[in-house]
Known about the structure:
It is built from 2 helices and no strands. By secondary structure, the chain is mainly alpha-helical. The chain has one domain (2-114). α1 runs antiparallel to α2 (89-102). The longest helix has 82 residues, at 2-83. Mean pLDDT is 79; it is low at 106-124.
Amino acid sequence: MLQDQLQASQGLCASLKEQCETASQLVWRLVGQECIQALHVEELEEENANLKQRLQAQECKFAVQLAFMQQQQALALEEQAEKHGLQLSHQLSPLKDQNHSRVPKLSPLGSAHDSPRIGTWHGE
């Protein structure tokens, strides 16, 4: 009878040992999967940060290009108006001020003695 109980206990211990090993393997697989997922999340977050930085750089580049185009357009309009005897500086100055606050002046606008007074006709 003791022999039977001993054999039954040994069988039960062997079965429990197998179950523990299986459970341990499953735990390590889950831990490994969680680590891999954490690495993927970290990589995705880093990629997202890089994309945001590139987007901000592109937005800045476009803002500079827009400011330059607006300044060139303002200069062209002023030159065209001067050809027709008008001075539009008082109308274009907000645009020039806006461009000047964003970017350094990209081309000279002329000096005060190069053009007539603001808001006057040539010949007045």
